[in-house]
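User: Assemble these into one structure.

Assistant: Restating your components, then the assembled model:
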Amino acid sequence: MALTIKEVEHVAMLARLSLSQQEKETFAVQLGTILEYASTINQLNTDGVEPLDHILPVFNVFREDQVEPSAPREEILSNGPLIEDGQYRVPKIL
Amino acid sequence: MELYELTLHELLTLHNNKQASSEEIVNSIFKRIHQVEGDVKAFISLDEDTARQKARAADSEKWPGKIAGMPFGLKDIFCTRGLKTTCASRMLENFVPTYDSTAGARLNAAGGVLIGKLNMDEFAMGSSTEQSAFFATHNPWDLTRVPGGSSGGSAAAVSADEVPFALGTDTGGSIRQPAAFCGVVGLRPTYGRVSRWGVIAYASSLDQVGVFSKDVEDCALVMNLIAGRDPRDATSLEVEVPDYTAYLDAGIKGMKIACPREYFGQGVDAGIQEAVKKALQKYEEAGAIVEEVSLPHSQYALPAYYLVATAEASANLARFDGVRYGLRDGQADNVIDMFSNSRSRGFGSEVKRRIMLGTYALSSGYYDAYYLKALKVRRLIYEDFQKVFNEFDLIVAPTTPTTAFKIGEQIGDPLTLYMNDILTVPVNMAGLPGISIPCGLLNGLPVGMQLIGKPFDEGTLIKAAYAYEEISGIRCLKPQQGVI
């Protein structure tokens, strides 16, 4: 079943995507179809099954807190699309 | 015989015997690339000048190592210091990393010569390499067909003799499926076997770095170089790395092979089923014990995968916000619009679709029904494999339901395209190693056979895959049409 345009707009807002009207209409249908297929997992009884979010038997991995050289600031900043006075420039937030 | 046609181990032998210099090898590789690349379009970028310099340095022993002067390619998802890394996305079209991935750095440290960066589906999301923001890669066996994906450029480049080996990544089949479509060897190691540091993340609990090569021996050689713990990747485990070349013997007498009936069912081309069954017969004749088994939750792996993978992707790709790197929309006057507009311009439609799907699956009200449910199904899939591996050494099945399909054939229908992964995603969900090797041809196109192993037991996969090369005589398949 297709999603409503309103649902698509809500998810797009959460995902920080601005979609055109045509994209919204296409996604409403496509996501509906994919979710319907995904829902086949509901045929399975999973009562008492622990979710498996990670297959490795590791939980916290610790290391010594040692100071090491980091990458040069200029190099890192060189990929910034808009830089001013050695800082990232963004539109006004507050 | 041209140098570019050879495998890594053949090139190493020639080089060690002073019969070919690195410069000659690298020149031959670029000669081949200039000859076929217009048709294949495997590379997003070439690093020709640096590669020739490194080759000369290797010849004068200033670029030493186990594979000194040997050419290779990297999927454009591996960060390369000073060399553009795009992930086949407009978002990262001009991104120049300030560091190397660990896997790439290990190949450099071994004297490898990076030839260039290989095409892929944008952010590794796709099964055909048609989702690259730049151009589609063509299958060297038939230029009207896809090479598979997402590591389609890596598979096509090895198949077309443009590089002897390449690295790719496999989140739901992105190494094994293109390897099958292009008739090359593709190994996805166990989750945690190879460091993911410096590899742009798609779905962090499923992604793994692996190898494309022309034969199994090369796969073992490359695994020796890239496997093992990396302090920079907390999920790379401290598990001893064996010498994988020690497994290159064909003694498979008594090896217990499971053949899962769910992988030979509806939707899997009859010709492919037959080709793999013939291969299983050859294993039996060589002394292996082959028995049919059931992996009863197989059909639920794909729907669960598309929920888990997209949920993780929606979180991973949140970092692309137009601030620190990547495409930036300069028009917006508030920060939220700047994020949204930058992302909408930078991402292609499949990436947006998966971010939307994953965001939906994680959103309030749907989290339990989709994401959490999928993680429970994931455990059932994992336990299916565990049960089989209590009794068997490995599982053998087809890699893909069909051979390579036509370019454009499935592009309009996302769900049909997702179905290509139906035989490969269970391995990712369970974190297991899997290798695809060519096992024959169907209507002139390669058929891939998938070998699935126990966690951290890539050695048994290499042994069984090598044995198949020996007993079948199928090794280093070359396209008989398309690019010759």
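Chain A touches chain B through 51 residues (CB under 8 Å).
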